[in-house]
């Protein structure tokens, strides 16, 4: 076996340079670490409360057991440690306190594989990758349903990306952190046949000559980087690896020596996963091989990988049917400025999950279908754990599957974690691809609280190694002495005492459990009867409520009917109202018009009446004047006639006198003349009378006409007034009606 810490300068050297005793203690090459290595939390120096609060993980540490190798516990690096680190490292250290307090998100990267030979000619591509924008888009129209989703991740690698691109950009910084003393996990998740194993393992490295193919995956590249870095630093280190497989909820050790009997029935010996009582898990009996060269580690990887259970499915010719975890633990020597030698420890877990599988599409039947069911079940639990962590649920169901128990520290713990989600660009995988992308996108929100593992003093490590060597020696001695299973006597005594104490504890626990069960049963019965009561009461209340509801529904119906009738009435009333309003409006308009007309008429009438009045009075005065004039004329005419008659009489008298005698002679003539004058006079008189009566008639007529006109005017006026009065009354009536 290669010895614990190894000098970076001499990969082939068998022993670490820093301790002769240490070198002596380890046996020769090819030997393994002891049979019962346990997985226990690496943070062994935490208080029990811390252990409860902060789940520890998959990391192996043997300090808990007799003869354990190197106990390490988390601590923030000292300032002296920082000074020796590179630029990148400084940033990681300065962030460590921040990381510790707030937590850092899990890094999620997505890799889309290219179409394979079978797909390339006839399979539409529905996934597009934008590496610059770190976006993956799925665009497709299925059954008139447009799918157009875009997801952003920490990094995106498209179908043409190379293994080296992914490693350099995403994994190399994580490996550097492992060498800084962090525990880091990289796991590949995705649908079956999307390139998880290709990404994690890739093409095999030639262990003999170290030939490195272009398609070598994350694991061999990480190994190479670790060795290169340690050698470049010329540091002393030791490295050990373990490789386990989780198949159908059973853990098997891929590095365990092959036992002929087990090979025959082709089954593998399952190993137990145990709680360490401090929140961590122990994989009891898991082999940890100490490695000193890259060649050794590649050989181990190749051997372990070949033992993984694979099968041909419709989706992948060599489909991994199990989850695998390859772990590399490195112990590195560091010197403090005070010259004290310290050992720091970093661990890298490389997880290749089995593919999530659509059983009908993968063509899995019988055992294969059961297998796929188990795979899906454990991945489902992983999904539930991720959801619980993202939603900050009080309970995270780590315990529901072995996979989540093993990955506990990597999900929500103190490990730095990176998920590589693998997808296919094919239209046929769209549903699963969207599931993977959803899953991965949710996982981005998980926060871990990474902490650097506490460094330990070299002297303490040497002490631990000595006790481990002593224990191994005793074991070896006992095994050489006898056949079968033998252990040293004091171990046997210790084990017996332990067994006794355990069985006593078991008994007391059983009693306690019984009491607790009984109490719980009583409580359950009590709460059951309580529930029954409450159920009955609830039933009664429900019935009451139902009755009330039916009544309410009836009332509601009536109310609805009334409301409908009211609504109709209201609508009618509203219509009427609008009609009345428009009528009032029209009436108001008419009234306004009427008022205007009335006013105009009134003013016109007054004007006309004034005019008429003045005309009539003018006409009357004119007629009166005319009459007076005519009377005067008639009078003057009559007086003139009388005067003329008188004068004529006088003339005649004079004539009688003048012509005395002649009168008599002329008497006849005079008589005649008299006669003539009398008739003339009569004629004149009748003419005057005729004129007089004509004038009188004319005056009478004029007076009559004037009176008649006046009467008519008065009648029209009174009629108009009557009309005005009756109109005003009508208006009042209409106003009071509305
Ligand atoms: N990025 C890639 N470039 C080229 N080939 C790839 C890539 N990813 C996967 N492949 C090829 O696709 C096939 C399936 O890959 P792989 O076995 O790694 O898938 P998987 O996800 O591990 O499947 P399963 O879950 O069934 O084990 C392999 O032949 C592999 O070489």
UniProtKB/TrEMBL annotation:
Keywords: ATP-binding, Coiled coil, Cytoplasm, Cytoskeleton, Microtubule, Motor protein, Nucleotide-binding
Subcellular location: Cytoplasm, Cytoskeleton, Spindle
Biased composition (Gly residues): 1-11
SMART domains hit by this protein: KISc (SM00129)
Single GO term (MF): ATP binding
Annotated residues for binding of ATP: 190-197
GO CC annotation terms, alphabetical: mitotic spindle; spindle microtubule
Region feature (Disordered): 1-102
Pfam short name (any one): Kinesin
Domain Kinesin motor intervals: 105-446
A GO biological-process term: spindle elongation
SUPFAM superfamilies linked: P-loop containing nucleoside triphosphate hydrolases
Coiled-coil segments: 462-548
Family classification: Belongs to the TRAFAC class myosin-kinesin ATPase superfamily. Kinesin family. KIN-5/BimC subfamily.
Function: Responsible for microtubule translocation. May be important for the organization of phragmoplast-specific arrays of microtubules. Plays an essential role in stabilizing the mitotic spindle. Required during mitotic cytokinesis.
Identification of the protein by name: Kinesin-like protein
Lineage: Eukaryota, Viridiplantae, Streptophyta, Embryophyta, Tracheophyta
